[in-house]
Specification:
- This protein is α+β, with helices and mostly antiparallel strands.
- It contains 4 helices and 3 strands; from the N terminus they run βββαααα.
- The longest helix is centred in the middle third of the chain and has 8 residues.
Length: about 110
């Protein structure tokens, strides 16, 4: 993806939008998305740093592996580069990645 900024308008090109019916049955398309920055009232951020280790320590991630090994297995850069424009991109980058633990039902 790449973005073009014109004043308060941002167009993000080639955003993957995948409809999953099952792990092997899905439709993927690339879309352009437009944002009006003047209308944004809140923003969710995914922060990198120590949140992964905090999540591990609090049981949010599979802790059957040492944290360092879990973190090494979770890197997807090489898989993402190899998958490139493959329609199964989302599936391929997740192969072999440890999963989060199940949330307790409330």
């Amino acid at each position: 993806p790449y973005a073009e900024i014109r004043g308060d308008r941002v167009t993000v090109h080639n955003v993957r939008n995948t409809d999953y019916r099952s792990e092997t049955d899905f439709s993927m398309r690339l879309e352009d998305r437009e944002l009006d920055l003047s209308k944004i009232r809140s923003l969710d951020l995914f922060l990198n740093g120590y949140l992964d280790e905090l999540g591990y320590e609090n049981g949010a991630f599979d802790n059957s592996l040492p944290f360092s090994e879990l973190k090494a297995r979770s890197h997807i850069n090489a898989r993402a580069q190899a998958a490139d424009r493959d329609p199964r991109f989302s599936v391929r980058i997740r192969q072999g990645v440890p999963r989060m633990t199940e949330s307790p039902e409330t």
